[in-house]
Amino acid sequence: MKWNDTYINGVGAFVPESVPSASAVAEGLYDEESLLADGFAGAAVEKELVAPQMAVEAARRAFAGSGVEPERVDVVFHSGIWFQGVDMWPAASYVAAHAARPGARAFDLQQQCNVALSGMELAAGLLPGVDGVVLLTAADRFSGAQIDRWKTESGVVYGDGAGAVIMSSEPGMFRMISSHTEAANDLEKVVRGPEFSEGPSTGVIDIGGRFDHFISTGGMREAAGRLVEAVTTSVRRALEHAGSEIDDMARVIVPAVGKSKLDWQLQALIPVDIRKTNWRFAAAMGHLGAGDQFVGLERMVAEGELVPGDRVLLVGGGAGFTCTSIVVEYLGGRVSEAVPEPA
Fold first, then answer.
1. What is the pTM (predicted TM-score) of this model?
2. Is residue 337 a part of any domain in this protein?
3. Mean pLDDT in the chain?
4. How many helices (H) and strands (E) does the chain have?
5. Is residue 343 part of a domain?
6. Which InterPro entries match (predicted)?
7. Distance between CA atoms of residues 309 and 39, nearest Å
8. Which member of 88, 91, 322, 328 lies 3.0 to 4.6 Å from 174 by CB, making a disulfide possible if both were Cys?
9. CATH number at residue 289
10. pLDDT tier, 342 (very low <50, low <70, confident <90, very high otherwise)
C-alpha cells in the first residue's frame, strides 16, 4: 500500500535502566553460552511501573516533541504481548485517559510482536476519516512468576519498556510512504503447544517447549519456508510501493532478537549490514516485546542518526504468523528530553 498525506508527528520512549547480562550469568539467571551466542549486553528492567503506565510516559514524551496537543487525539491503539497489570481490563482506556483525553476512542490491539507496525497500518487507513490524530503505544513489563526474561525463549532476552508514535494527516517528523503486511495464520500452531487449557498457565511459560512439540510433528521445514516467504514478500512489496531498493534505506529497524537469530535474518530475509539496524540499542535493552520498532525509531532520532531525506525501513514479525514492513522518510525534528511526571 502506498500512503499519501500520512505522517508521524512525534515519537517517544520510556526504557528503564538495564541489568547487565554478565550479572545475570553470575546470579545463575542466564547462561554464558547464550550470552556469547546472542550478544545481549543487558536487559532493561522496570521495578515499579506496569506496562500501561510506561506507555503513558512514552506518549507524554512523544507529545512534548511533536507540537501536537494531547486533546487532539481521536483514536488510541495500545498494544503489548504480556500482562498489562490487571486481568480483564482495558489498558488502552487507561492510556487514553492519562496520556490523551477520556473521550478518545481506545482499543487494545493484539498481534504478538508485529502489533506495533500493524497498528500503524490500521491507523494510516483510519486517518482520512479522523478529525485529529492517532496515538499508538506499545509497552511490556516482563515480570511475574510465569515469565523468565532470560530463558523463556531461546535466542531472546526480554526487556521492559514502552514506545509511542503520534500519527496524523498533517506534516510532521516522518512521512509514511508505504506498507505491506503478509499473513500465514495457520502457522499459529508453531507456538501453540500440544493442547489447549481451560485457563491461563500457572507455570513458567516455555516457548521453546512449544517449538519442540511442533518440530516433533514434522512440519518445521514447510513452516520455515513459508515464514521466509512471508517476510521477504512483505519487505519486497513495501519497498516496491515506496519506489525504493533496500540499499536506499539509511536505516532498517528489525525485531530485537539475539545475534544467533539476527545474523541469519539479515542474510536470508533482510539483506542489510547490521550496522544499519537498531541492534546497537537492542543489544543493551533486550527484546521489548511489542515496542522494538517504536523505541528503535525514537533512539535513531534522539541520537542523531538520521538527516532529513533519509528513508527508514521498519520490519515487524509476530507469531501467528504476520509480518508488516513500513517505509518512512525523515523530514526533521527532535525528540523531547523532558522527563514527565509519573502517571
1. 0.95
2. no
3. 94
4. 10, 11
5. no
6. ACP_syn_III_C, ACP_syn_III_N, Thiolase-like
7. 32
8. 328
9. 3.40.47.10
10. very low
User: Which residue type sits at 168?
Assistant: S
In a domain, 138, yes or no: yes
Let me know: does 252 contact 265? Beta carbons within 8 Å: no
Question: How big is the CA angle at 334 (ends 333 and 340), to the nearest 5 degrees?
Answer: 135
Question: Which DSSP string do the residues of 178-219 spell out, in sequence order?
Answer: EEEEEE-GGGGGGGT-S---SS---S---HHHHHHHHHHTT-
Planar angle of CA 269, 136, 146, nearest 5 degrees: 75
The pLDDT tens digits of the residues spanning 144-185 come to: 989 999 998 889 999 999 999 999 999 999 999 999 999 988
Q: Is 103 exposed, middle or buried (0-12, 13-18, 19+ CB in 10 A)?
A: exposed
CB 35 within 8 A of CB 21: yes
Q: Is 342 part of any domain? A: no
Structural domain total, the chain: 1
- Residue 325: which H helix or E strand, with range? strand 322-330
Contact 328, 179 (CB under 8 A): no
- The rounded radius of gyration (Å) of the Cα atoms in the chain is 19
Answer yes or no: is pLDDT of 299 > 70: yes
Q: What is the model's pLDDT at position 343?
A: 44
